[in-house]
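User: Okay, second chain of the day. Same drill as before: sequence in, structure tokens out.
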Amino acid sequence: TTSFIVVENSAQWRILERKEEQSLNAKSTFEFEETKTSEPPEIILLGLLVLFILMFHKKIRNNTHL
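Assistant: Same drill. Structure tokens below.
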């Protein structure tokens, strides 16, 4: 959408500039800075993967002997 503002004198220009600045400041208030989260080391992920594989393998082995 587009709108036009008719400014008739310098007082209105000052008010318009002040309102634009307030609007821009309000937008920056809602912005947030993304922080990088640390990722777990690969060795921990590898250990968890091996643990899950062993647990799954043990469950399958126990089910086949029944």
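The chain has a mean pLDDT of 81.

User: Thanks, on to the next one.
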